[in-house]
Amino acid sequence: MQTLEKPTQQEDDVLIRDTLAGHREAFGILIGKYKDSLYDLACRVLGNAQEAEDVLQDALLEAYRHLASFKHQSRFSTWVYSIVLNRARNRLRHKKTIRWQSFDAPPSQDPDASPVELPDRGPSVQDITENRLSLETVEKAIETLPFEYKSIFVLHYIQNWPILEIAELLKRPSGTVKVYLHRARKLLYRRLGTQGFAL
Description:
Blueprint: H1 9-20, H2 24-32, H3 35-46, H4 49-65, H5 76-95, H6 125-130, H7 135-143, H8 147-158, H9 163-170, H10 174-194
Helix pairs in contact: 1-2, 3-4, 3-5, 4-5, 5-9, 8-10, 9-10
């Protein structure tokens, strides 16, 4: 029996074909499968509902305009998520609200510094959220993470994306994604700890 939990690429391909054939309602159905999770991602990485709505609308318009260039070598969901993340990144750059660094650069003000490897003895994400910390407190701490860390953290721990799919989305080796996910988790742990909470 076919699972209904996750839209299949075959279903998406049919809707893409119908959209390109001139049936605009097909695009609405296609996007309807992902719109809520895309909006959730944009909200979490931008920290502002109105900006997330603006970014999402721009991203969906871009996806519609460039649908014919979608290469079917990856899942449609991966493609449209990458558009939303790129739009969110550009919005933050425009606002100059964060300091940018490459995925491979150390999270430090000193460009020559070595990557900070935090000890692997902190609590799990479940422990963090269950151990006397309100969801609001955790969400605020997540918002303070650098964009790359926050994106991976949200995709994996909140939207349940597997490591391999995140790697495909970001066009990074899975090992790099794991390293950044580890750093995001440890940085979140450290930031929650500095707020006076016993973790």
